From TrEMBL:
Enzyme class: transferase
Residue intervals of the N-acetyltransferase domain: 10-186
Organism taxonomic ancestry: Bacteria, Bacillati, Actinomycetota, Actinomycetes, Kitasatosporales
Keyword Acyltransferase in annotation: yes
Protein's UniProt name: GNAT family N-acetyltransferase
Single annotated GO MF: acyltransferase activity
Amino acid sequence: MTAPEVSPTPVIAQLSRPHDATAAVRRVLTACWTAVVNAGGAVVPMDCPLPPVTEAALRPAVGRITRGLSPEHSRLLLATMDGALAGWLLLRREPHPLVAHCGVVNHVQTHVHFRGMGVGIALMRHAQRVGRAEVGLERLQLGVRSGSGLEEFYRKAGWTEVGRWPGALRVAPGDGRDEILMSLAL
């Protein structure tokens, strides 16, 4: 009798300075983002065309994210499994003093080859710890496109829906989806 195959636990690394995001890191981030968007993920940057996208179209957005990293304001969390990038997210502090105690989670994504293996929940739990203990945040917020089932994933992770913008997101003509606004107290 053989033992059942066990999925490895994601290892989470944190980048907090632009020089931490080497050319190799930027390449794997771009490749992951491209695969996620083209598989129907809801993480298309504002200045990119609608899917399908190319890595060349996403490189400028990855560059902006990595250039903006700072320990006080913006951190990139990377999940790896067996040495391969399995997913990532961006954790940012709100810049305005009235909401500087709040953070925003952006670009949450799990590479299509690692879905269903606990990568997303590992990233979210780590973001909560980093937000509270290292950045000093009291609350996180994020936006989710309806119709993809992600709102249920976030609810199970402790997030609460605090509002909706009906029909705010459109991936294709006639495809008006709600943007679901979610919040999590830390």
